[in-house]
Amino acid sequence: MPTLSDLAFANRLADAAGEAIRPLFRGSWEQEQKSDSTFVTEADRAAEAAMRALIEAEHPDDGIFGEEYGIRNESAGRRWVLDPIDGTTSFIAGRPIFGTLIALLQDGFPVLGIIDQPIGRERWAGFSGRETTFNGKPVRSAPCRALGDAVLATTTPHQFSDHEADHFMGLAKSVAERKIIYGGDCYNYGLVASGHVDLVCEAGLKLHDFAALAPVVEGAGGLMCDWSGEPLHAGSDGNVLAIGDPARLEDVLEAMGLGE
Asked: For residues 93 and 109, is the Cβ–Cβ distance under 8 A?
């Protein structure tokens, strides 16, 4: 299990990433397109390098899984999962709704998570056995009596395959049309934890995209799972749901055509 010193260290990692990102926001920097068609900037690389340097210096036996610089100590029971800028397109566009994601995995399961928005200086921290905090104060996800009352978010419909889009549209048709939000990446999950958004549905995420999110949402009373309703872990397929009110899980799966 993680310790309070692990949480303090994760906050230091977020601080280091923010120091690397803020001077470059809405400034001049280099960018390139990667082989998977996503973009990477100088800020992504600088932020991850800053975090990795701290981990390697202070926790050399821990593993690292980083979006930009890959894997270190892959067989370690404890692994830090880093996404220096989740929402690089928003960063490029000057929209301050991207975030730095930091997770600690224990034997493949996320036990600690940070969502940090370095421009607005907004930080959600989730930690197994403790309440999620937003800038140091506890937050709770919101109750939702029915899907028709829910606010639903997803980053982009282009992220879904045709088959996945059918499932998403089933869910979208179950909520009010004017309560669907597009864009936001990891920021949407912080809003679930704080009770402002009820549901997030995504497909095709990678470990660094979702590992930090589960402790944040779940520590606020919500639920994160895959599209089968199973808990997220290092082997999950990347099709994820965040549900602020766990009582709506069966309704969500049914709406998506995934129920039993």
From this structure: no
Residues near 232 by beta carbon (within 8 Å), at least 6 away in sequence? 110, 210, 211, 214, 224, 225, 226, 240
Write phi, then psi, for 91 (nearest 5 degrees): -60, -45
**Cα–Cα nearest to 242, from 204, 188, 181, 184:** 188
Query: What H or E segment, with its residue span, contains residue 46?
Result: helix 42-58
- pTM for the model stands at 0.95
pLDDT tens sequence across 221-260:
999 999 999 999 999 999 999 999 999 999 999 999 997 6
The CATH number of 4-138, from 3.10.580.10, 2.40.290.10, 3.40.50.2000, 3.30.540.10, is 3.30.540.10
DSSP state of 112: E
**Cα-atom radius of gyration of the chain, to the nearest Å?**
17
Q: What is the dihedral of CA 62, 66, 71, 72, to 10 degrees?
A: -30
